Structures are given as structure tokens and as C-alpha cells.
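Lab meeting, item 3. Inverse folding demo.
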């Protein structure tokens, strides 16, 4: 017997008779949200370096880098290291960038349900715009650093919020989100360096970038087709009460001869998860979070501890140009693998963590013993590194979404986002002494 439409149709299809069109709109919407969420963070870091360089007049020999993560190049004419080191490791900047995000991801999942999604998106867009304005008009170092912090807050809160948001849509939007975040690094680096190369000042370039928070606003409020269950402007407590009432009414409207699939509204608890439930869910997430954290720890150890030391003398690229190409190829690998979920799914993410650890050990030995004969081999390993990192990210959240109970899924997606930030933080702490050791040789 054909079932009533209210029972069989997906919420997206109830909103729009053309379910395929809605899915495409939502996929594009999440792609743009992923792009905008990471774009401000990526571009603003390079701009902060340019402006700090002007503010600190003692660093007159500093060279500008348009790379993804800022390379503070302080004048050091007496540098006798074979690695052509900068006195300050890029890991120091990385720690300043990631610590606010880590703080948000650790604590926000326990209280963020009290803030509706519409308010969160507005807050993230305002934080991103503020970071652009602060860095572009900064007259002191502390203003630029504050801009970095605001960008980190926007990116961290945005990531856990948009990952949680995906549970209200078809699972395919995770592909769009992953691909968009991967594109942010590549597009951001090229666009910023291109505008600077065209002769625009960092300040004007940053003011142009204010269009990015506007695109985030439009993508969420005008492009996405949100299901009725989404708590866009109401608190979670109010929304859960409405959902219970809606579910009960749906049961009353269903045909009498049909046995309901489950009586979740009667047999299972409703309302927001308790603190004890949230801790229980977190314990179950470690099988996903730990491999993801290891991948990002080794990945950013390469990026911030080793990459600037993989320098080849007397070739067609300068040291700064080699570093920029390393970062560009890394971002290309991330983009490709974060966009691959439709064609390739990897359940055993721990395999990727093992491969990334082997990659880090190999490159560490390459830095120490200088046995790599050509920069092209390094290019290959950096591209491979990005492929592993991007694949670990999208597959982790895909299988969390697929294997977690419905009641826990939204919280799980937010809580698991701490894995990459925790790994990046540990990588920054490890990279500082490693950088110091090699530069002392």
C-alpha cells in the first residue's frame, strides 16, 4: 500500500517538489559556507604579516610571504645556519592562530545549543568582518594580533556550527562543506597574492575581502533550503518541545492500519542532552577523534616545523618561493581529497594517520641528513601530505554522521571538531624546539 506523503517524503522534498534542485542548492550553499568560513582566516593571516612588517621598522630586511600560514621573516644578516632559518618559527604564529579555536571547540559544544543557528552565523560573519577591519586599519601590533584572534574565533565557532548543521540536511552536504573548506586555502592564497601583485596595498585588498562575510550571510539565509526542524531563531529547548508536538501530531495523522516504526517520543528521552550524556558521547567519539588528531599533529608538524627547513640552494626558486609552492601544493592536495567523498570513502581513518606519521618521519630525516636530491621530490611528498590530511577530515565526519545515533548526532559533529585543532596545537608546541635545534646546527 502506498504510504502518505507526510510519512515517506524527506523534509527537503516537503519543502520543494523538486528534491534534486533543493539538494543542489544546499550542496552549493555548504560549499560556499566552507569556503567563507576558512577564507577569512587564511587571507587575514597573510595580510597581518604584511602590516606587521610595516609596523616593525626594525625588520627592514624582512621579506613578504603570501603563503597560507604566516612566515615572520625578521632581518637576520648574521644567520649562519645551513637551513637559512628565520629567528622566529612559523610554529609560533600557528599557536597564536589556533589556541582561540581550540578553546571554543573544547567548551562551546556544551553550551552552544542555547544559541540558535541564525544567531551563530551572524556572529561568525561579524567576527570575520571585524578581523578584516582591525588588521587593515591597525596602527599597532596588538591590533593585528587581535584581528588574528577574531578570525580564529569566527573560524572555530563556524566550523563546529556548520558541521552540526549538516545533520539537518541530506548527508551529501558534507561533501560540499569539505570541498569548500579545501578550496578556501587555495583560492585565498592565490587571490590575496594576486591582488597584491597587481599593485593593491594590503589595506585595500583586505577591504575588498569584506565581501566574504557578506557571501556567508547570503549563503545561509538565502541559498540554503532549511528544513522545518532547524532551530534557526529559537533556542534548542523551545525547538525540542515543538518537535515533540509535531511528531505526536504526525503519528495521529498516519493511517490506523500502519504500525509506527518506532515510538521515540514515548520511549526515549526528549530535550537537549544532559551534561552526563554529552560526556558519554565524547567517550565514544575517541575512536574517531584520536586518528584525526594524529593526522593533523603530524601534518602540521611538517608544515610548521619542517617545511621552511626543506630549502634547496641555487635552484630556479628562492627560499620564499619554495615555501609558497609547498603551501600551494599542500592546499591543492587538501582540496582534491576533501572533494573526493562522493567517489572514495575510507572507514579506517587510522590507516591515514599511520601513513602521515611515516611521511613526517621521512621528511624529518630528510631535513636532518639532506639526502633528497631535488625539490620536485619534496613537492610530491607535500602534495601527498595534503591528500592524506583532507581525506582524514571528510571521512571522519562522514562516518560520525553515518554511525552516530540520531539523538547524539548534532552534538557529536560539533564535539569531534576538536580533533584537528588539538592535533595542530600539539604540533605547534613540538615544532618550536625542533626549529630551534635545526637552526642551531
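The presenter then showed the designed sequence:
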Amino acid at each position: 500500500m502506498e504510504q502518505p506523503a507526510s510519512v515517506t517524503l524527506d523534509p527537503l522534498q516537503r519543502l520543494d517538489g523538486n528534491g534534486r534542485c533543493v539538494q543542489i542548492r544546499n550542496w552549493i550553499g555548504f560549499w560556499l559556507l566552507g569556503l567563507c568560513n576558512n577564507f577569512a582566516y587564511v587571507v587575514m593571516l597573510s595580510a597581518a604579516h604584511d602590516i606587521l612588517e610595516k609596523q616593525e621598522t626594525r625588520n627592514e630586511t624582512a621579506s613578504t610571504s603570501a603563503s597560507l600560514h604566516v612566515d615572520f621573516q625578521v632581518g637576520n644578516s648574521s644567520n649562519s645556519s645551513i637551513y637559512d632559518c628565520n629567528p622566529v618559527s612559523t610554529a609560533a604564529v600557528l599557536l597564536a592562530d589556533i589556541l582561540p579555536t581550540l578553546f571554543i571547540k573544547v567548551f562551546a559544544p556544551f553550551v552552544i545549543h542555547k544559541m540558535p543557528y541564525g544567531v551563530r552565523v551572524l556572529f561568525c560573519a561579524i567576527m570575520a568582518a571585524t578581523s578584516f577591519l582591525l588588521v587593515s586599519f591597525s596602527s599597532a601590533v596588538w591590533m593585528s594580533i587581535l584581528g588574528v584572534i577574531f578570525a580564529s574565533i569566527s573560524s572555530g565557532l563556524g566550523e563546529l556550527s556548520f558541521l552540526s548543521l549538516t545533520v539537518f540536511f541530506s548527508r551529501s552536504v558534507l561533501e560540499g562543506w569539505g570541498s569548500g573548506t579545501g578550496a578556501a586555502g587555495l583560492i585565498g592564497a592565490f587571490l590575496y597574492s594576486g591582488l597584491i601583485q597587481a599593485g593593491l596595498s594590503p589595506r585595500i585588498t583586505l577591504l575588498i575581502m569584506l565581501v566574504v562575510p557578506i557571501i556567508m550571510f547570503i549563503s545561509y539565509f538565502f541559498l540554503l533550503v532549511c528544513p522545518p526542524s532547524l532551530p534557526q531563531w529559537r533556542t534548542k529547548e523551545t525547538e525540542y518541545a515543538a518537535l515533540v508536538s509535531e511528531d505526536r501530531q504526525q503519528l495521529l495523522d498516519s493511517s490506523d492500519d500502519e504500525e509506527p516504526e518506532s515510538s521515540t517520543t514515548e520511549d526515549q528521552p526528549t530535550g537537549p542532552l544532559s551534561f552526563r550524556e554529552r560526556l558519554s558521547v565524547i567517550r565514544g567519539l575517541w575512536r574517531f577523534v584520536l586518528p584525526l588528531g594524529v593526522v593533523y599533529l603530524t601534518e602540521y608538524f611538517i608544515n610548521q616545523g619542517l617545511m621552511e627547513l626543506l630549502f634547496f640552494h641555487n635552484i630556479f626558486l628562492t627560499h620564499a618561493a619554495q615555501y609558497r609552492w609547498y603551501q600551494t601544493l599542500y592546499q591543492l592536495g587538501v582540496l582534491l581529497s576533501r572533494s573526493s567523498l562522493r567517489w572514495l570513502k575510507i572507514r579506517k581513518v587510522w590507516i591515514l594517520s599511520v601513513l602521515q606519521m611515516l611521511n613526517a618521519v621521512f621528511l624529518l630525516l630528510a631535513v636532518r641528513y639532506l639526502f633528497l636530491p631535488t625539490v620536485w621530490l619534496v613537492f610530491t611528498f607535500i602534495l601527498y601530505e595534503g591528500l592524506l590530511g583532507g581525506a582524514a577530515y571528510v571521512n571522519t565526519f562522514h562516518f560520525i554522521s553515518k554511525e552516530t545515533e540520531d539523538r547524539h548526532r548534532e552534538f557529536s559533529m560539533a564535539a569531534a571538531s576538536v580533533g584537528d585543532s588539538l592535533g595542530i596545537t600539539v604540533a605547534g608546541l613540538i615544532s618550536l624546539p625542533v626549529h630551534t635545534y635545526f637552526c642551531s646546527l
